[in-house]
Amino acid sequence: MEEQTQAAGLPQAFTEVMSRILGDEYPAFSDSFTLPRRNSLRVNTLRIRPEALRELVPGLMEKVPWTEDGFYYDRSLFPASRHPFYQAGLYYLQEASAMAPAAILAPQPGERVLDLCAAPGGKATAIGAALRGEGLLIANEIRLPRAKALLRNLEVFGIRNALVTSAVPARLTEQLAGTMDAVLVDAPCSGEGMFRRDPEAVRDWSPEKVAECAAIQRDLVLRAADALRPGGRMVYSTCTFAPEENEAVIAHLLAERPELELLEVPQADLFAPGLSAGQLLSCGVARDRETEAALQTARERGFDLTRCVRLWPHRLSGEGHFAALLRRRGGRDVSVKKKDRRNSLREREYGHSHGLPSSGQPDPGRRGKAKGKQAPRGGRGAAAGEALSAAQRQMTAAFLEPFAGKDAAEAIARRMECRHGQLFLRPDGAPELRGGQVNVLRGGLLLGELKKDRFEPSQALAMALPAGPADSADAGAPVRIVPDAGDERVAAYLRGETVSFPEYAECPSGWCLLTVGGYALGWGKLVRGQLKNKYLPGWRQG
User: Fold this and answer.
1) Which CATH code of 2.30.130.60, 2.60.34.30, 3.20.20.140, 1.10.8.60 fits the domain covering 468-542?
2) Which tens digit of pLDDT belongs to each residue from 84-110?
3) Is 239 an active-site residue?
4) Which of 181, 218, 235, 299 could form a disulfide with 277 if both were Cys (CB 3.0 to 4.6 A apart)?
């Protein structure tokens, strides 16, 4: 075993546990860490059909078996991370096994879904695409810098019905108690499933880190479960192999929340079953008292932990992953009692250590109250209300109607809100989250800004517009510039440069939408064939 450990470069304490669990399969498991990993991507079905993307680009190979929108691809034929279609939000680069949790959750249009640990956004973008603009996605990330990266990925995908928050889970789920149709907890973990991809994960690993992660995960799943409505479902997942962070966490959850039931995973035949409590206890892999107690309880109460699924890298084309699907039966009052309103010390310390504000942060997703009166929807006073009305007219006539159709544009205009000079499209049914408790980075789709007597469209609006040529016959409608994906001017635009399009010299001056193959990249100001670049500075390519 020592020779195998050295060959694979894996920590001995890790391989000892894996060899006990896998037995005769362990050599194949160990060898898998020396094999090259496969590249994969997930198609943004809000923008393009999976088969249509296959027709557009070379190098897409077979589909990822456990999801409808994932492909393996050949990097030598398709440099996916550098292709303009990536910036156009046509796909997300995601490891194949990491596509499983959102596929298992199977969100449906119209549902209210919470992704509790959402950054950098791989699973959140999958959920947002599955909702198809109907319902609500609340995507949360406790670390503020990572939450900003999450917001960018959701905006690149053109997801318009999302709230992006940066909050300690206890503070968020307290306000959402008993209201969510579906919850995903892709928990922070020790990352054993990333060992082949990330040497840093190997260096950072230790048995102490496993125990620390397991303690955080036990808190997270309880908070997440309390956000579920009766009949609501939850997926708990990790990218690690440690039983302490996987089956033992589910055993703890089932013991503490008896209204939950563990379900069969619909894709179970594609994966390996979870490990039973008896199997784990007999191999002696429980390295702490909490894990052993949870497994003992699971064995005594008959929790069938084999309904969980494991993605082993020696059995499929992907890295390591674990997932469990649960449903709330109902019957228990999940409203938060006064004595439970305090956050756990562990969660508070975890949030503070990652730059999360403790209090006093304004909630840009909430219409405030002043002196006991409802604040005007458009801001302060009649002038702000008039500005919003003017912006609604301009948006409907110039930016929305040519691309979305008259009826859709008018429906969007009725749901606009103005906050501090910015126009938002607030999702239907979005909760009024209390400021100071939950930091809302984005309360819906940012449409643009009001600047004096004009409206400037946002990058997020560009990405949310449907594909296709514009009907520029409408007066004042932004022109769509449609170069080929290989046009060198596309790369120049993505770098933030001014670009010349002499073929559009006769078009009216003003706002235009630069696209690649008809799919939006961002805005510019067109003047006699010269495009003044309005691509968002933070998104520009080096």
Assistant:
1) 2.30.130.60
2) 999 999 999 999 999 999 999 999 999
3) yes
4) 299
